[in-house]
């Protein structure tokens, strides 16, 4: 979305939506903290699956965004690595609104600079990585494996890394796919349709409209070998390009 497409009303409504988002987090943070402390963390999955999506409803309403979830095929009934395309600020809202079972997010380290995200993220066991430091990012993910396996958690990542990238679908990083192989988890692709049109790249401003999360059938990784991992990455990225309606792509498919 080009900023020139925004009307004055769009800008006012977008700023109102941003305000509602932070007010919701501000009011919910002490409640979430109390519930997690009292339950010794046992309510984490309930909060992620039920309360998170509930918190996003007033934000969507204030921003004029209609969010839908479309399940293609049967939902996966075991822990998985969920992958989402990432090109919009709206992605943060739609990721929280998904309410996936036993889910934890792998997010950029900088989100913790916001005290609300830091408190909620740390209390709910999200995984924060420094994307600029590849070795440290891999180390952080690997240290999380034991907790992920023991608690039978699913993980959600954006293989493009940053939302600021060339093309509609940016190059995919290998980390999420290594993680799926290491954990012996299937990969579940989720394609966000409409998010980019509502707010593209680094812009915090949005316009009213519709966004849909397409949850596709799981991809088995049992027989994957690390030597052929790059080919699997290319094949999955091609799916995203097809869903985005991109016929040709000159961007290096693997970062």
Brief overview:
This protein is 44% helix and 15% strand.
Would you give an account of this structure?
The chain is an alpha/beta fold. Helix 4 links the parallel strand 3 and strand 4. The chain is globular. It has one domain: 3-Layer(aba) Sandwich (Glycerol-3-phosphate (1)-acyltransferase). The model has no long low-confidence stretch (mean pLDDT 89).
Structural descriptors:
255 residues; alpha/beta; Glycerol-3-phosphate (1)-acyltransferase; 7-stranded mixed β-sheet; 8 helices; 44% helix
Estimate the helix proportion, in percent.
Answer: 40-55%
Number of self-contained structural domains: 1
Q: Which spans of ≥5 residues are poorly predicted at pLDDT below 50? A: none
* Class computed from helices, strands and strand pairing: alpha/beta
Instruction: Please give the count of helices.
Output: 8
Query: How much is the radius of gyration in Å?
Result: 18 Å
What would you call the quaternary organization? single chain
Distance between the termini: 25 Å
Q: Please tell me what the overall shape is.
A: globular
């Amino acid at each position: 979305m080009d900023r020139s497409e925004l009307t004055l009303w769009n800008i006012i409504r977008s700023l109102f939506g941003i305000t509602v988002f932070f007010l919701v987090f501000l009011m919910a943070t002490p409640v979430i903290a109390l519930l997690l402390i009292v339950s010794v963390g046992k309510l984490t999955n309930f909060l992620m699956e039920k309360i998170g999506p509930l918190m996003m409803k007033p934000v969507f309403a204030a921003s004029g965004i209609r969010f839908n979830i479309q399940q293609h095929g049967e939902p996966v009934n075991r822990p998985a690595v969920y992958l989402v395309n990432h090109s919009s600020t709206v992605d943060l809202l739609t990721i929280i609104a998904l309410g996936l079972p036993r889910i934890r997010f792998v997010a950029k380290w900088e989100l913790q600079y916001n005290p609300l995200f830091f408190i909620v993220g740390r209390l709910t066991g999200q995984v924060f990585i420094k994307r600029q430091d590849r070795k440290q990012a891999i180390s952080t993910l690997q240290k999380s494996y034991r907790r992920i396996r023991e608690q039978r958690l699913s993980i959600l990542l954006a293989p493009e890394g940053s939302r600021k990238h060339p093309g509609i679908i940016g190059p995919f990083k290998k980390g999420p796919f290594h993680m799926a192989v290491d954990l012996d988890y299937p990969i579940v692709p989720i394609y966000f349709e409409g998010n980019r049109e509502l707010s593209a790249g680094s812009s915090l401003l949005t316009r009213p409209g519709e966004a849909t999360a397409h949850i596709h059938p799981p991809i088995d990784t049992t027989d994957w070998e690390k030597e052929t991992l790059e080919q699997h990455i290319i094949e999955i990225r091609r799916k995203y390009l097809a869903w985005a309606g991109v016929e040709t792509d000159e961007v290096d498919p693997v970062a």
